[in-house]
């Protein structure tokens, strides 16, 4: 079973609107990373949020982390067409495998 | 600095053929990962190397998939023999160590006929 997973396969919003992608995970973690993958490219990291942080911002992006419910969210404000991509969360486990575990991703489509 | 390089970008193979995908990680990175990506399964880990030593070899992929890292700056993924169900994007990533940020290449899109 997936140790980390996004909660929706796909989302679609209109340009300028805000959108939130959610992620849940199943193990204790030291940090969680959000990645974005545009068509024809590999994933690239957007934000890293550590287990002792509740919120992290990067421009129009805002990530939250709730370790009690083992969930995270990535919000994008004032969306643009170029935000169209697949968004992944990846967890850094406290114990066990010394590497990231990726969720399956949420396809976000920003319509003009 | 150069990012992760993967070649070829596209590969078409007949069922039963052997194909070799190549990856050059970011210079100085200790960890190298091979993933298979499909819409249904998402990112599946195929192999994971640390300082050229194989740390994980994805169980379901052991029989026909073999990744090697002969030196710290080059890795190959061999699929032998290919099957149509192997059609997917194969991604290579590298990182400093452990849970650090992974830097991905652009991927190789494999189509097996």
Brief sketch in words of this structure:
Chain A is mostly beta strands and 112 residues long. Helix content of chain A is 0%, strand content 57%. Chain A has one domain (4-111): Immunoglobulins (Immunoglobulin-like, Sandwich).
Extract low-pLDDT stretches of chain B.
Answer: none
Specify the structural class of chain A: mainly beta
How many domains would you count in the coordinates of chain A? 1
Instruction: Give the overall pLDDT of chain A as a whole number.
Output: 92
- The arrangement of helices and strands of chain A along the chain is EEEEEEEEEEE
* Beta-strand content bin of chain A: over 45%
Give the CATH architecture of chain B: Sandwich
CATH superfamily of chain B: Immunoglobulins
Please report the total strand number of chain B as a whole number. Answer: 11
| End-to-end C-alpha gap of chain B | 37 Å
Question: Any idea what the radius of gyration of chain B is?
Answer: 13 Å
User: What is the CATH class name of chain B?
Assistant: Mainly Beta
**Could you give the distance between the termini of chain A?**
36 Å
User: What would the average pLDDT of chain B be, to the nearest integer?
Assistant: 93
CATH H-level homologous superfamily name of chain A: Immunoglobulins
| Structural class by helix and strand composition of chain B | mainly beta
* Approximate shape of chain B: globular
């Amino acid at each position: 079973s997936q140790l980390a997973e996004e909660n929706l396969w796909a989302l679609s919003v209109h340009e300028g609107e805000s959108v939130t992608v959610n992620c849940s995970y199943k193990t204790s973690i030291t940090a969680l990373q959000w990645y974005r993958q545009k068509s024809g490219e590999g994933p690239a990291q957007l934000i890293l949020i550590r287990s002792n942080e509740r919120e992290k911002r990067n421009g129009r992006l805002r990530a939250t982390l709730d370790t009690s419910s083992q969930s995270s969210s990535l919000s994008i404000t004032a969306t643009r067409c170029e935000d169209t991509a697949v968004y992944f969360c990846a967890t850094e486990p406290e114990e066990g495998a010394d590497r990231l575990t990726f969720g399956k991703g949420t396809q976000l489509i920003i319509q003009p | 600095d150069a990012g992760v390089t993967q070649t070829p970008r596209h590969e078409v193979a007949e069922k039963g053929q052997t194909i070799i995908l190549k990856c050059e990680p970011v210079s100085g990175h200790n960890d190298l990962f091979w993933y298979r990506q499909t819409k249904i399964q998402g990112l599946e880990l195929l192999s994971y190397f640390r300082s050229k030593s194989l740390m994980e070899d994805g169980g379901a992929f052991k029989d026909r998939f073999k990744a090697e890292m002969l030196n710290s700056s080059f890795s190959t993924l061999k699929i032998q023999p290919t099957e149509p169900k192997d059609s997917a994007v194969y991604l290579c990533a590298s990182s400093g160590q452990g849970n650090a940020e992974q830097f991905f290449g652009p991927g190789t899109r494999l189509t097996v006929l």
